[in-house]
Amino acid sequence: MARAVEELNRRMLRARDAIDRSYSRPLDVSDLSQVAHVSEAHFIRTFKSTFGETPHRYLQRRRVERAMFLLRETPRSVTDICLDVGFGSLGTFSRTFTDIVGETPTEYRSRKLVFAVPTCFSMSWTRPSSFGEARAKNGA
After folding, report:
1. How far apart are CA 103 and CA 95, in angstroms?
2. Which residues contact 85 (CB under 8 A, 6 or more apart)?
């Protein structure tokens, strides 16, 4: 039994790696479930139980993480960044960014964050988490 769980976890990691590699391109559950060699419904359930969020939410968060970097490090327009990270519309990007980060892309950029710490710490600290989303929804 443990071997089967280990193999399934490996398949989920392969699918997550595919999301990480191709986050800026259109991805759908059927393609990702084929990477994991499971049915679509089983893929969604297993991905969520393994990583704590649905494949779609993981993809959104990954795109927002990249957008956060581009907003901090480049002078490019929010619209260009939105399209580069894989969102199809500025409205969806702004709403998703605000849901995950807690502020609009423009507000995030205007804070002019400067990190004088090792990259591994800054990446960990700036990574949006589902915990923050839960707190924001509960009014904390």
Report:
1. 9
2. 23, 24, 63, 64, 66, 67, 70, 93
Q: What is the CATH number of the domain that holds 71?
A: 1.10.10.60
Residues 85, 129: one domain?
yes
Distance, in Å, from the CA atom of 80 to the CA atom of 69, rounded to the nearest integer, reads 13
Cα distances (angstroms) measured from residue 15 to each of 1, 9, 42, 70: 22, 10, 13, 25
The verdict on pTM exceeding 0.85 is no
pLDDT tens, position by position, 74-111: 999 999 999 999 999 999 999 999 999 999 999 999 98
Q: Report which of residues 136 and 36 the model is more confident about.
A: 36
Classify 121 as helix, strand or coil: helix
Token pair in block for residue 27: 């991805």
Q: Which domain holds residue 114?
A: 61-137
Mean pLDDT of 17-46: 92
